[in-house]
Structure formats: C-alpha cells, structure tokens
Amino acid sequence: MTFRFRYRKCAAATFLAIAFVLSIISNLDCTFVKVDVGFIPSNTYDYAAETSEYGIGLWTIEQTRSNGLCIMPMFLGDKMSLTKEDDLYASFLMSEDVVFTASRFLALFGCIFGLIDLAYAWAAVFSVFGSKGNRVTLNLTLAAFICEGAKIALIFMSDPCTAEEFWEELDPDEVSTFHSADQCWVGRGSIISAIACAVYFSVVVYATMSMIFRDYSHDNSEDRILYDEISVPSFMQSVGSSNLSSKSRTNQGPQTMEST
After folding, report:
1. Beta pairing, strands 225-228 & 217-220
2. Cα(223)–Cα(204) distance, rounded to whole angstroms?
3. What is the rounded average pLDDT of the residues 142-157?
4. Quick one: which of 16, 23, 135, 250 has the fewest CB in 10 Å?
5. Which of 55, 156, 144, 159 is nearest to 106 (CA)?
6. pLDDT per residue over 202-241, tens digit each?
7. What is the distance, to the nearest Å, from the Cα of residue 201 to the centroid of all Cα atoms in its chain?
8. Contact yes or no for 120/137 (Cβ under 8 A)
C-alpha cells in the first residue's frame, strides 16, 4: 500500500481537530447561557444564591459564591440542580425539560460525529480511503455542524429561559410567586460553540469544492511521472488513431499496385 501525504487534507484535518476541541470545551463550560432573572430568586441552592444573574451550561453551573467556578450539581448531592423544583442537573442526560435534554443529546451526537470525522480525515491525509474521502468528510462534518448549531438554538428555549414558573420570588410578606427570567443572552460557551460551527462550515465548503473541482492528477512513484487520468485516455486515443491511419495507408499501397 502506497501512502501519500496531502497538505490540503492535512489542513482540513487540523481544522476538524480545532472544531472538535472547541465543541467539547463549550459542552463543559458553565456559562453557555447567561440568565438574568431580574430579582434574587429564593428557590436556588446555596452554591447559586445571592445574585440575579446565573451562568448555566449543559452539564455545569456557574458557582456564584466562588467567582465563576464551574461545578456539576449531580456530584454535589442527591438530585441537586439549579433550583429546588427542577431536575435539569439531577442526572447526566435525562430531565423533565425535553428541550434541555434534546440539547444534551445533540451535543453528544455532535462530539461523536466530530470524533469519527476527525479520525477519518487524518486517515485520508495519507490516502488510505482513496477518492471517496471527500464525500465521507462532507457528510460527517455537515452532521457535526448541524448538531452544534441546533445545540445552541435549543438551549435558549429551555426552562431556565422560557418557563413561566421557574424562578421563585418572596415579597416582604413572605408570599411566594413564580416568574420567568427577564432575558437570556449568549455566554462564553455559546461563543466557543459558534466558533466551532464556523470552523466546521469552512471544512464543509472545502469538501464541497473538492468534489466539484476534482484533482485527477496521480503520481507514479516508480517512474516519478505526474499524469492525468483525463488527458491520458485522450492521448492514447489519438495515438491509436494515428497508428490505425498509418496501417490503412500501408495496406492500401499494395492494392493500388495490383490494380495497375
């Protein structure tokens, strides 16, 4: 088996590695979304209290008492979460919030597609998979790109941002009322995830252009000859036509003499 190093595919594989690492960082970041409640809620746990702004991630929460330290509530206690009523962080994947759960699954599928794509791209750098590598890279990168973008969109529709009765407020008379958050905006994790999407998209463009403008040249490692599989058949056809015409002239010569 002959291995050939290809610099353009090496650049694409490097971009995929960058996007994959950025995707993992965004998944573990505790400020994927910044939530402005508008008041200091009374139904949060001690690690997320005394503030009206919270940083939340897919698996981590910003600990407001320690200047932004990321923590995983599922490891702190039995079914601990963001508030005392929700179960967003009580387990690794599932929760009552379908949108938040779907965002987690998209993050996991995006990492799986990204890892397979990364391994395939680095193997294609040495031409292990032949000419079909661009098509496989395109499909895998497009799947990772879609999962990454959908993950960003869905988490902004989760309960901490949209639920009408998620955050509890106590008035001076100790009367409890529940409200929705005032607003949610992009946090550090969302920006990192958006950069990963941009990198994935650049690889999608590269793979698409490589399929449209294919490189037909091949390197003969024994004779050190660079040939093209489109021009070679044309050249051979012209040589064959020339030989055929020369044979026709040779065969017509004796027939002309006999007729005379």
Report:
1. antiparallel
2. 35
3. 94
4. 250
5. 144
6. 999 988 887 777 654 444 444 444 444 444 454 445 545 5
7. 8
8. yes
Q: Which residue has tokens 């040589």?
A: 239
pLDDT band at 172 (very low <50, low <70, confident <90, very high): confident
Query: Minimal CA–CA distance to 60: which of 189, 171, 245?
Result: 189
Split at pLDDT 50, 70, 90, the class of 168 is confident
Mean pLDDT of 18-22: 96
CA 73 to CA 87: how far, in whole Å? 10
Q: Assess contact for 145 and 15: CB atoms under 8 A.
A: no
Extended beta strands in the chain, E state: 33-36, 53-56, 61-63, 69-71, 167-170, 176-179, 183-186, 217-220, 225-228
pLDDT tier at 130 (50, 70, 90 boundaries)?
A: low
DSSP 83-116: BSS--TTSSSS--S-HHHHHHHHHHHHHHHHHHH
For residues 46-63, give the mean pLDDT. 80
- Cβ count near 223 (within 10 Å): 8
Q: Measure the CA–CA gap between 86 and 43, rounded to whole angstroms.
A: 10
The C-alpha angle with vertex 83 and arms to 25 and 105, in degrees rounded to 5, equals 40
In the chain, % of residues over pLDDT 90: 34
On whether the CB atoms of residues 160 and 82 are closer than 8 A, the answer is yes
Strand ranges (E), 105-207: 167-170, 176-179, 183-186
pTM: 0.74
Strand ranges of the sheet holding 53-56, from the earlier edge strand across to the other edge: 69-71, 61-63, 53-56, 33-36, 183-186
Task: Record the tokens describing residue 71, joined without a space.
Answer: 């923590």
